Backbone:
């Protein structure tokens, strides 16, 4: 049943995906509203799907599709928070395709399941998953905002008259979205890694820093920290901020892939 | 639709003619009264702005002498005036009013002020009672059409002056301009105008620097800002988010190294340079820096030109909306025109029916309730059948242009004019006798 709700959510997110493709070419208030309503409805279905999953006790099973579904939902939540504050749907250009992709993968089939030797630390594990994925969602949004910043900056630099008629928010607004998401996501990511270490310590008695997953996760956290620091200290934005966001997201993806090779944190087939 | 309109605008008449016809706001109520007092005019309204003077009326026969009113009221020689006048009637007058309210007839197509000016003129005329049912209907619709044009097209959305383009660009960079600071370098007229626009949109602190310090101080005083010595320009320029520069310097005064210094001191917060100097004050190398946005006079002018062209393109869409709205308005007015005739016809036939029933009663004596019901049903049935065709014809005609002719034919056939006059004079008689008796008491 959880999968059915997720598929309903996927259908709603599809409207958002279409919006993302067209929004860069032509602005339309009506289409933005439709996409927003569809995304909201999709979130309701998605929430029902996750609640069913939680009640069935499967969250701690931590299959890849559950993880992707949770990440998609948290990303949409961040998007909605940004919309509530800044009244702009433009981050959807980046967020909607990612959310659609994650939900699509989660909704199509059964995926490998995370090794279940942590089942005695269920509370810590759930906290680890939620914290780390909230950090990921914030990172994705920050990454999206930095991309849109580049697009808007390019438009303004090109000095084409059309640069005034743009669906994108002002540069400073995009910068604020990116920076605030980053600052908000960092503690979640940090606490997520700490709870993960607690789970690993309890299960194995030690944390193996040479394990690819652990190593890459710490690397990702370090890049994340550098990004927050440079933004806070030197006000890095534009191209430099986007490059750092790219590196962090790329490290996060590599760290995710490492789940298949890790001995401490891997998906069982 | 007995609407008639006469007027001059920026296209039809030079400024000196428009000046002679212009009516100050204080005299507008009296002029509206004079207009409605002119023979053949039932309702009237006057729009008087710097670009147009127009009289919009609803007349008794659709052919009132509006030129005569203008000649008499303004004491102008017809030869001087008539060549500049335009006159519209019926549907064309409606279309013109819709176009004016929607800002399609304005000098700057899509400008927003005209709708406010028309609304003010309407309120004035309404207050003195020179706008009633017919013009009220026309202008209520015109305001709705103007709103529709604004919503469904982008005819008024882009900026069409250098200063407003500068404000738009600043908003694209900073979002809200509330609390942003502006640095004026070189105290020229154009910079002053741009600064005024920015302040009107929320910019707070103003700094002024000029090679002649006294001029900078004078301008700073006008803006309640702070004058900065020209030698201190590079030390203080980074305080500003927006820099308007228009010095007469033969070389760029803002170079790449200055931009780098500013950005370092501002922690890379963006700066917007509005460079209206010729030759340019901001070097192209500095404009390439991330976080520096520099627009010179050509860039701004190019945006203005493009926006004007966009507005004209959007105006074509707006014209299509107006054409359909004129048709709808005409149909609605015709539909309303036939209502009194249908009511009169129903009253007329009902009077005949009642008279005939009374005659039958007096001849046959009292009827039983069953007989009463039968007579009632029979006579009503006949009346309804007789009325069916004329009413259907009237309703059909209301949707077409022949409504007036059909209404006239029906009224003549059933002699409704005479009946209405008789009932009106009867009503007047009753009213005056009532008044007399009240006076006596």
Residues:
């Amino acid at each position: 049943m959880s999968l059915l709700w997720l598929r309903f959510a996927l259908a709603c997110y599809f409207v958002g995906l279409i919006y993302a493709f067209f929004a860069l070419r032509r602005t339309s208030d009506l289409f933005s509203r439709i996409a927003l309503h569809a995304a909201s409805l999709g979130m309701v279905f998605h929430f029902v799907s996750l609640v069913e999953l939680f009640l069935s006790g499967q969250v701690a099973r931590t299959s890849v599709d559950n993880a992707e579904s949770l990440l998609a939902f948290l990303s949409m939540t961040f998007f909605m928070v940004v919309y509530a504050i800044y009244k702009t749907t433009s981050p959807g250009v980046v967020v909607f395709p990612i959310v659609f992709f994650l939900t699509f993968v989660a909704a199509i089939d059964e995926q490998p399941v995370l090794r279940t030797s942590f089942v005695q630390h269920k509370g810590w594990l759930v906290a680890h998953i939620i914290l780390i994925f909230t950090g990921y969602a914030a990172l994705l949004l920050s990454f999206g905002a930095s991309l849109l910043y580049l697009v808007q900056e390019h438009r303004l630099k090109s000095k084409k008259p059309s640069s005034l008629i743009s669906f994108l928010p002002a540069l400073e607004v995009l910068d604020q979205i990116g920076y605030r998401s980053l600052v908000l996501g960092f503690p979640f990511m940090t606490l997520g890694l700490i709870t993960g270490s607690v789970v690993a310590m309890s299960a194995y008695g030690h944390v193996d820093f040479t394990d690819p997953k652990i190593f890459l996760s710490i690397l990702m956290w370090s890049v994340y920290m550098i990004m927050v620091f440079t933004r806070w200290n030197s006000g890095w934005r534009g191209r430099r901020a986007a490059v750092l966001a790219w590196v962090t997201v790329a490290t996060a993806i590599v760290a995710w892939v490492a789940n298949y090779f890790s001995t401490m944190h891997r998906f069982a087939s | 639709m007995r609407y008639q309109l006469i007027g001059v605008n920026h296209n039809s008449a030079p400024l000196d003619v428009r000046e002679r016809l212009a009516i100050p706001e204080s005299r507008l109520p009296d002029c509206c009264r004079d207009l409605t007092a002119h023979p053949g005019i039932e309702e009237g309204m006057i729009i008087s702005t710097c670009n147009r003077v127009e009289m919009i009326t609803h007349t008794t026969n659709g052919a009132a002498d509006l030129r005569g009113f203008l000649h008499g009221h303004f004491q102008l020689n017809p030869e001087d005036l008539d060549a500049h006048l335009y006159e519209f009637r019926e549907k064309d007058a409606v279309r013109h009013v819709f176009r004016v309210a929607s800002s399609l007839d304005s000098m700057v197509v899509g400008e927003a002020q005209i709708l406010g000016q028309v609304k003010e003129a309407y309120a004035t005329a309404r207050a003195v009672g020179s706008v009633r049912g017919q013009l009220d209907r026309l202008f209520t619709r015109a305001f709705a059409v103007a709103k529709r044009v604004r919503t469904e097209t982008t005819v008024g959305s882009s900026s069409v002056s250098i200063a407003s383009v500068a404000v738009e660009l600043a908003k694209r960079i900073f979002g809200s301009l509330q609390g942003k600071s502006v640095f004026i370098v070189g105290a020229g007229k154009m910079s002053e105008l741009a600064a005024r626009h920015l302040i009107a949109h929320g910019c707070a602190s103003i700094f002024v620097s000029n090679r002649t310090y006294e001029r900078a101080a004078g301008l700073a005083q006008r803006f309640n800002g702070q004058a900065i010595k020209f030698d201190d320009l590079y030390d203080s320029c980074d305080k500003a988010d927006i820099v308007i520069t228009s010095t007469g310097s033969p070389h760029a005064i803002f170079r790449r190294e200055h931009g780098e210094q500013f950005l370092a001191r501002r922690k890379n917060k963006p700066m917007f340079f509005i460079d209206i100097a010729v030759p340019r004050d901001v070097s192209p190398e500095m404009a390439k820096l991330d976080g520096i946005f520099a627009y010179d006079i050509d860039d701004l002018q190019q945006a203005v030109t493009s926006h004007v062209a966009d507005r004209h393109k959007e105006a074509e869409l707006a014209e299509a909306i107006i054409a359909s709205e004129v048709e709808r308005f005409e149909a609605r007015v015709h539909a309303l025109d036939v209502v009194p005739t249908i009511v009169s016809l129903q009253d007329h036939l009902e009077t005949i029916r009642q008279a005939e029933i009374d005659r039958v009663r007096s001849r046959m004596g009292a009827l039983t309730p069953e007989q009463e019901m039968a007579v009632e049903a029979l006579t009503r049935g006949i009346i309804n059948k007789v009325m069916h065709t004329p009413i259907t014809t009237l309703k059909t005609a209301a949707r077409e242009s022949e409504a007036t002719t059909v209404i006239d034919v029906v009224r003549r056939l059933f002699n409704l004019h005479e009946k209405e006059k008789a009932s009106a004079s009867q009503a007047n008689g009753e009213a005056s006798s009532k008044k007399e008796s009240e006076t006596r008491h």
In short: The mean pLDDT of chain A is 80. Strands of chain A lie at 113-114, 267-268. Chain A has two domains: 1-111, 112-269. Residues 190 and 221 of chain A are 7 Å apart (CA to CA).
